[in-house]
Amino acid sequence: MRRNICLALALLFATVCQAAPNPACPNGPLRVGFYKFGAAYRMGQGYDVDMVRELARRLHCQIASETELPRLRALKMLASGQIDIGTSTLATPDRLAYAWIYPYNHTKNMVLLHPSLKERTLPDLLNDPALRWGMVRGYRHSPEQDQFLGQLDAQRRLVVADDEDDLYRMLNDGIVTAAFALPGSYGRWLRDPLLAKRIAVLDLFPASTPIASGMALSKVRFSRQAAERWHQELLKMDQDGSLLGILRRYISDGAAKQMMQLPLD
């Protein structure tokens, strides 16, 4: 009799333990939103996918779904808690109101120019009536670059693309004649040698500091304590070389090292 009681208590204890929520993912299996962005994510693959899956594995969290979303929709779904995690997200005051955002690499926007533009300085470009600047809907850049885009928008010289493929298509066709883009995004597009010869890549904002791509966790779905578990595991992946190794699967060794040269915080 006593043995049966002990067995029942052990089974009850095991059931309770199994039912206890994982402190890293207290709301259960995760819904992850990705958006099309160069080597970070495309057709279910990319360094963002590998990073999130590795973090989930280390933290013993299940992934319920991985969905490709337009950038603005992914942000809105993060804000409402319809998805748990987003990636390649720049921390801005408005986004930090609804998401915990932790950087995992740093990079810098370059300027891509259509061959119809011969100028190579920002003041000369601004005086060219052929200048039409393209940007992807929902993208944020450095503070200086976002301010610059606001000025172009006021002058009706800004054209908004749906995603990066749409932006590069418009740049190739001359619908837009200039655009900001990150190496991890345009590198794949400029593998075409004919395009690489036609499109100039310049750093016209040399004083602009690199921007941090971050993993965003919805505040609706994660407490600060739960989110911090992801943050600490992300820092461990930086320290043990796992983040660099993941980047190397999709971009060159030099580009990967460049993205990881600044410390994460």
UniProtKB/TrEMBL annotation:
Keyword Transmembrane tagged: no
Pfam families (UniProt xref): SBP_bac_3
InterPro entries named in the record: Solute-binding_3/MltF_N (IPR001638)
Signal peptide: 1-19
Keywords assigned: Signal
Domain Solute-binding protein family 3/N-terminal, chain residue ranges per copy: 45-188
Superkingdom to which the source organism belongs: Bacteria
Protein name (record): ABC transporter substrate-binding protein
Organism: Chromobacterium subtsugae
